[in-house]
Amino acid sequence: MILGSYLTAYLSGKFLMLLTAVVLCLVGIDFIIKTFKEKTHTMKKPFSQPPVYYIKEAIATSLLTVIAMALPGSIIHYHLGHIDLAISASMALGVIPMAYLGAKLDIKTNSKTIMILFGVVMVVFSTYFFINQIKALP
Q1: 1 pLDDT more than 50
Q2: 3-state DSSP assignment of residue 20
Q3: pLDDT in tens, 14-25
Q4: Residue 31 and residue 40: Cα distance in Å, rounded?
Q5: pLDDT digits over 26-51, tens only?
Q6: CA 73 to each of CA 22, 47, 82, 109, 113: distance values in angstroms, whole numbers, following the listed order
Q7: For a pLDDT cut of 90, what percent of the chain falls above it?
Q8: How many domains would you assign to the chain?
Q9: CA 109, 63, 110: angle at the middle one, nearest 5?
Q10: What is the per-residue pLDDT for 127?
Q11: For residue 125, what are the contacts with CB-CB under 8 A and spacing of at least 6?
Q12: Alpha-carbon span 84 to 5, nearest angstrom
């Protein structure tokens, strides 16, 4: 995470956005395909075989680990001047209640449905990001 933060000084933002969009799209497609192939509510980690994760456990684990993964990179980005605190605060106004709503929906939704929706959302948003980055090229 820290190395990735420093690489932003050497790689263009456009390149990084295009690369991110491609990787997210591939992961989303892989997620959807593996979900339809699975007979139970378990899901293998994308692009690998073992171990098998339960999607709801993966969501909870992700929420806990995101703090440890995001904090060092966020500190570097802040010191590099990449973070606008006013925008971050306004985003928090929407993120916090939506996180609560998402947790409630997770509890009530079938695991396979969550996996399919997650894959579809990844493909849709990564395609959107990719197209917008291509349109913005000089």
Answers
A1: yes
A2: helix
A3: 888 888 899 999
A4: 14
A5: 999 988 888 888 765 455 555 554 34
A6: 22, 25, 11, 33, 32
A7: 32
A8: 1
A9: 10
A10: 96
A11: 24
A12: 16
- What is the residue-wise DSSP string for 62-131? HHHHHHHHHHHHHHHHHHTT---HHHHHHHHHHHHHHHHHHHHHHHHS-HHHHHHHHHHHHHHHHHHHHH
From residue 133, how far is each of 72, 101, 128, 137 by CA, in Å?
27, 30, 9, 7
Contact call for residues 28 and 120 (beta carbons, < 8 A): yes
Could you tell me the residue range of the domain that residue 115 belongs to? 2-135
- Judged by DSSP in three states, 3 sits in helix
- Please determine, for residue 107, whether its predicted confidence score (pLDDT) is greater than 80: yes
H/E element, 21: helix 13-37
The whole model's pTM is what?
0.62
